[in-house]
Amino acid sequence: MQWDVIIQWLPKLFEGVGLTLQLVALSGVIGLILAIPLGVARASQHWYVRALPYGYIFLFRGTPLLVQLFLVYYGLAQFEAVRKGPLWPYLRDPFWCAVITMTLHTMAYIAEIVRGAIQAVPAGEIEAARALGMSKWQTMLFITLPRAARIGLPAYSNEVILMLKASALASTITLLDLTGMARTIIARTYLPVEIFFAAGMLYLLISYGLVLCFKLLEKWLRVDTGQLGR
Amino acid sequence: MDTLLKLESVRCSFDNEVVVNELSFHINEGDIACLLGPSGCGKTTTLRAIAGFEPITAGNISLRNQPVSTPQHRLPPEQRHLGMVFQDYALFPHLTLWENVCFGLRKLTRGEKQKVAQRVLELVGLEQISHRYPHEISGGQQQRVALARALAPEPALILLDEPFSNLDVDLRRRLALEVRDILKQQRITALMVTHDQEEAFAMADKVGVMQSGLLQQWDAPFTLYHEPANRFVAGFIGQGRFLPGRIVAPDQVATELGLLRGNRAYPWEPGTPVEVLLRPDDVQPDPSGPLRALILNKTFTGATSLVQLKLPSGAIIDALFPSNAEEQPGDIVGVRLDMRHLVAFPLSNG
Q1: Which member of B86, B106, B159 has the closest CB to residue A124?
Q2: Residue of B nearest to A228 (CA)
Q3: What pLDDT does A229 receive?
Q4: Where are the domains of chain B?
Q5: A96, B90, B145, B290: which could form a disulfide with A124 (CB 3.0–4.6 Å)?
Q6: For an interface test with A, which of B75, B85, B92, B166 has the most A Cβ atoms less than 10 Å from its Cβ?
Q7: Which fold has domain B239-349?
């Protein structure tokens, strides 16, 4: 193992880490924000409210992220209307293509987590809130969603870590994220073992950091206190 | 006294299955009432219909003479101003006890909230630990918080759904009395649902016995026990066995235990075969008594023993013996009847 090579290329690998973190953070946060209304609609009792989110989730969970990435990056440029459209400066940029695709993809998964969490909130607590004078929407805002956030948080942290690893696919559309950077360095040094080892370690460190952050968040939100009446 | 809650011919159904039918009763301001019945009798559905969580398919429910539920219209639960205490308490686990209690007080100012929360938490004796979270306190304390939370917005009526069923027997009795005291002292009207008759008797001024969606009897506990309206109520409330007999006079029934006299006149023709309800406390040991019976079984219950007796005809009755009585299963003993209330029903064929 040539440790000096690893150390020599570490600054470049850190650049890759920066891009990976940007991709994961943007898709994780935007995906979460968009997934909440989607998940609420998915948990609706009315089929016509449920239908659209159901179809969306079915589509984006049922196809590989790589295929979605290629369709957005290579596919959209085929359309004249897209090339002439106001969003073209973004859509021709591989970074934004990756952010958009990863957001749309993770959003489907998070919406399912939100739905499951909403449905896991004990019916009694919702009725208690209603009996205490809250309308349906107030109950959703003050009881159901805060409770669902605590129920769904562990599953959400899992999804973020999955997205961290899925972000390696961004390297297939020319992005120099951690994986892309590692491959570029390998093309220069011909030392795949050393560089992939270093990249793997960095992924591990990022995961560890994410796990730690979510643990603190769970503690702060008192996730473990939701186990009442069992 | 004013009528607070009134149900008239209420029917509830799920998917064409009638769960509650022709249910009518009313509760006066300040009274504690209870719906009692075996599981699946429709009592919880009734409570949920009153709270506004279930629609009704016939009849109407009114609060202070204002209709709240009809088959056409249902006032949403949040506009009924009722307090509700749930079987599993349904406390909000992410909020402290204090925040749980304040939850229904959003319309009050900070100062008012403070005052009300302080008052209701003192009422249930938990003001010292109001900063704790629900999972950090015991089941009995959780139940008290649930009550405090329901009391805080000063509801017109409190609904309690099997409020003590998750507690152990000892605590259940104590808490039932405590809750009754609090409700009475605050002059709060309450309707409770339970399958535990001791709890119902301890808490309620009026008890309604339900079976298969129908109200069988609505009366004071004493009347239910001593003057059950029908055979179901007689069998469901308290212990007791039925002994066959024959009407001799409107207030007299001939049985193998002799002529039984009551304080009630029955309309049936002399000679009509009937069943007489014998409570264990109606039958007492009497060594010199004229009636002889064989002891089949003896259950020690503390102050008394419940003894199962076989009469010469083969009929089986229960009796209460003092727990120091020495008779054992297999012995023949003398017994005596000491009845104040003669309860008889025409013999059902089959």
Answers
A1: B86
A2: B135
A3: 39
A4: 3-234, 239-349
A5: B90
A6: B92
A7: OB fold (Dihydrolipoamide Acetyltransferase, E2P) (2.40.50)
In CATH, what number does B3-234 get? Answer: 3.40.50.300
Instruction: Give the chain B residue nearest A148 (alpha carbons).
Output: B94
Q: Are residues B90 and A227, on separate chains, in Cβ contact within 8 Å? A: no
How far lies B230's CA from each of B101, B211, B276, B278, in Å?
Answer: 43, 12, 12, 14
CA distance B88 to chain A (A): 6
For B279-292, the DSSP string reads -GGGEEE-TT-SEE
> What pLDDT, on a 0 to 100 scale, did the predictor assign at position B34?
95
Q: Judge whether B68 and B62 are in contact, CB under 8 Å.
A: yes
Question: Side by side, which strands form the sheet with B58-63?
Answer: B17-28, B3-14, B58-63, B66-69
Closest CB from B83, B92, B106 relative to A131: B83
In one letter, which amino acid is B277? L
Identify the CA nearest to B156 among candidates B54, B50, B42.
B50
Residue that has been written with the tokens 């008239």 in this structure: B8
Four-point Cα dihedral B18, B23, B29, B32, nearest 10: -70
- Best CA proximity match to A167, nearest among A111, A109, A98, A93: A98
B252-255 β-sheet, strand order: B258-261, B252-255, B241-249, B273-278, B344-346
The Cα of B76 is separated from the nearest Cα of chain A by a number of Å equal to: 8
A34 pLDDT above the threshold of 90: yes
Interface of B with A (CB under 8 A): 51-53, 76-78, 80-84, 86-94, 103-104, 106-107, 133-135, 142, 149-150, 153, 159, 166
- CB-CB neighbors (< 8 A) of A150 in chain B: 94
- How does strand B344-346 pair with strand B189-194? unpaired
Mean pLDDT confidence for A181-185:
95
Which residues of chain A does B103 touch, with a Cβ-Cβ cutoff of 8 Å?
Answer: 129, 132
Residue ranges and CATH numbers for the domains of chain A are: 3-221 (1.10.3720.10)
Chosen for mutation from B135, B141, B165, B167 (greatest number of chain A CBs closer than 10 Å) is B135
Q: List pLDDT tens digits, range B27-60.
A: 999 999 999 999 889 999 999 999 999 999 999 9
**Nearest CA to B217 among B229, B205, B227?**
B229
pTM (two decimals)? 0.82
